[in-house]
Specification:
single chain, alpha/beta, tt1808, chain A, Rossmann fold, eight-stranded mixed sheet, six-stranded mixed sheet, 39% helix, 19% strand
Length: 597
Amino acid sequence: MENNQSFFEKNVQLGLSKKILSLNEDCSRITYNCCREYSTSYKNPEEKVRASYFVDLVLKYQYPQHRIDFEFTVPKRTPEDRADIVVFEDDMKLKPYLVVECKKDGISDSEFKQAIEQAFGNASGLEAKFLIVVAGLTKRAYERDKERPLERERNIITDIPVKYGEVPKYKYIKGEKDKELQIIDKEELIRALEKAHQTIWQGGKLAPADAFDEVSKLLFCKLKDEKETSITRRFEPYKFQIGTHETPKEVFTRINDIYQKAKQKDAEVFRDDIRLEPEIVFSVTEHIESINFNDTELDTKGVAFERFLSTYLKGDMGQYFTPREIIDFAVKFIEPQTDEMILDPACGSGGFLLWAMDYIRNFAYKEYPDNTTKAFSCWHDFAKDNLFGIEINDKIARVCKMNMIIHDDGHTNVISTDSLQDIDKIYSIHKSFSKEKFDIIVTNPPFGATVKDTEKDYIKNYKLGDKRKNQKTEILFIERCFDFLRDDGRMAIVLPDGILTNSSLQYVRDFIMENTEILAVVSLPQIAFAHFGAGVKSSLLFLRKKAKNETLGNYRIFMAIAERIGYDATGRKDNQNDFIQILEEYKRFKEEPINFQ
């Protein structure tokens, strides 16, 4: 069984091994060994959900196969309806006990509500005691109330009973077998995050960025609850879940309590309250309550959250997102070390910081292959103590912090302020942001915006802004990076090609050459940022800050042109990536003997 299989595929594989279901040779048809041999097409995504839940019914909930039937006709329904799965109380199959309605993963909230009504209709027609709607990872179970057939809210139960037993108060309990959270693959995680966002977005009632902000708050609560339950509440129920007969208001109160306590301890992550109705929080909880975020592999969480992020950080928000291929190349080129302090003064969603952390994480596990505890401590301490970011947009700064929390922390050194203001003001916010503090700066500063002396009085304090009424942000960022960098420190920065070629900007190039050793210039293709709405031709500059009074003689500069960089103009993956060869060429370049005549 492959590690990249989805939760559903793994469950089906388990069912195959136990011979409670079977697939034909080309996996186009499935046969369920229930009260009869029921065979149907396996090409429909909905069928994979039904197959997985059938395995759960038999193995997890311990219902006898000979009391389970598929596509069972419901009497008195007009038009005629069939229940996806029915579990009976008796061997004669005269007393329906549970009705299951299955839908594919990723359906909308309105489709989920329709499925609930369909399940209630079938359960009422069959006079079953319980019903459950299973839409991928999102599930909702009910105890049918004969006295109040239209009741919904108070009839919700956390899960169906095991083997005709009692309804549990809570479904997910730390440390109890079969009641633990699920580790899922990246596609399932992406769908869960997207469902959460769609529920909060409410078809446009909130702006996408505001909806994302609210998703982040609830994710923060989920992660906080997982960690605290693992440490202090073993064999107790997780708080981030829906209990039997709990109303949306009760669920909201418990989750909001997690949020308010966490906000008091770490006010910089989220300053605002949760701005959602209890019913919305209730639905989002359904989408993500079963997921084990903390134990899901870091790479899986990283790719899933990045893909989720990229959907919402396009267009006007595209300035905050740098493609992973460029980030990966820049970090590998700069080669961070475990004891080096790293800053991104325009950190956006945190890509450069996270890749630096991942670079050290990979190094740590190679350095200490037989000591995973030491390896974990190495990269985790690095993430906590050596990664720093500044982001001017408060919402995006919170996105960055959430991104880092999902990647196992480092968020406390990300601040939201203007990187170009006087450093003393930045220092007053966070004492680690002082002049000449950092060993490495890696950044993609905003292009094109103009800082006017009438709006920002700090422009006169810049050598590259002195005696100018206005200046481009990317030019001021060059000098600000130089301010933050230690002598002999290294810098990777994305800059528009105009800075390298326009005759009117010679003074900027002079500043760079006077203060740094130019290690390399790598030209990026025109399409590098096209799928985020930015078509400015740009390059990556790699620089080393000279020590005071250091004089450079003749030296070599590595030059390269990247034409294919792993994706096309629309952002679709391209298997050709020149960055791989450029890195190899640079290694050879550094090893070549220097011989100036």
